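Treating backbone geometry as a discrete language has practical consequences that deserve illustration. The amino acid sequence and the backbone structure tokens for this protein are reproduced below.
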Amino acid sequence: MRALRKVLVVDDDPMVGKSFDRVLAEKGCAVSTALNGQEALRKLGEDDYDVVYTDLRMPGMNGIEVAERVKQKRPWIPVVIVTGYGTAANEAKAREAGVSAFLHKPLSPDMIEASAQAALRESDAALAPQIRTVAALERTLAPAESVSVTRNIALLLAAPFVGLAYVVAAPFAGLAMLVRMGATALSNRSGRVAGFLKNIALFFAAPFIALAYVLATPVIGLGMLVWFGAKAWLKKTGTD
């Protein structure tokens, strides 16, 4: 058995819990005890356990009821009934409740150790599919996350070149459009004077419009790309 396995023993006789502790502590298990079902359920709500041992006859909640409550909340935890009053009827009810095995009093160290080994193997087998599923999800998500981070870093590095492209292209595009508008206005002499004058004004305003593109566009583009890259980097750092 690997170290630091957690075992919960539920019995109104404190000596039973001490017997489990003496045997299993040497085998790398941490043994906790509860004197009744309510205390056991409270401890199960506060900590994780690998196996639960419960007496069959106890004041208040009996062992079968404890097993039912454990299986409702954490069906993967093996529950072993410890009893000196084993009957076929009790064992049938316990099996229906999901009990994994029975341990009959009087107990010996060999009985406790063998039972714990079997129960912990069952616990490992029950958790194995969940562990494999989590590992598969991690393998699936990791490449996609890596691609996303790489893409955002590439965009961040490309930001100066994108800004430069805007700087070079925007003035020419703006001037070409305004020259075309001015030429069209000049060719249509029959148009209204106001329209003609408006187009002339736009023609002379072209250098200032181009200058506005030159100054604003790279800054906006760089700002957006830096923000996206920084956001992706912070997300990656937080995940790690």
Summary: The CA atoms of residues 6 and 50 lie 5 Å apart. The chain has a mean pLDDT of 76.
